[in-house]
């Protein structure tokens, strides 16, 4: 998976889960797993990226 696709998947994931109930955010705990489709329709889960760097991009509009 190329870097742009992974960044897009993570950005979309953050947008989707931002309105959900907040999970336990205890420092040191693993992030909750979730699955989303990438731009080609392939399902990608957060757990499938374990051990790889994940870039979280936060942006504001307004």
Q: Which term fits the overall shape? A: globular
Q: Which structural class is indicated by helix and strand composition?
A: alpha+beta
**What is the helix fraction of residues, given as a range?**
10-25%
Terminal CA distance reads: 32 Å
Question: What spatial order of strands do you see in the largest sheet?
Answer: 1-2
Q: Overall pLDDT, averaged?
A: 75
- Tell me the major beta sheet: 2 strands, antiparallel
What is the H-and-E element order?
A: HEE
Strand % is 5-15%
Rg calc: 12 Å
Number of helices: 1
Q: Based on DSSP secondary structure assignment, what is the total number of beta strands? A: 2
Runs with pLDDT <50, length 5+? none
- Our count of domains comes out at 1
Structure in words:
With 62 residues, this protein is an alpha+beta fold. The chain has one domain (1-17, 35-62). The protein is built from one helix and two strands; from the N terminus they run αββ. It has one helix spanning 3-17; strands spanning 35-37, 43-45. Strands 1-2 form a two-stranded antiparallel sheet. The longest helix has 15 residues, at 3-17. The chain is globular and about 35 Å long.
Tags for this model:
single chain, globular, alpha+beta, two-stranded antiparallel sheet, 62 residues
Summarize the structure.
By secondary structure, the chain is an alpha+beta fold.
Q: Topology, please?
A:
Blueprint lengths: L2 H15 L17 E3 L5 E3 L17
């Amino acid at each position: 998976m190329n870097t742009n696709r992974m960044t897009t998947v993570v950005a979309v994931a953050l947008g989707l889960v931002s309105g959900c109930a907040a999970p336990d955010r205890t420092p040191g705990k693993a992030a909750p797993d979730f699955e989303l489709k990438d731009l080609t329709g392939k399902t990608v889960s957060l757990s499938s990226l374990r051990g790889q760097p994940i870039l979280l991009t936060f942006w504001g509009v307004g």
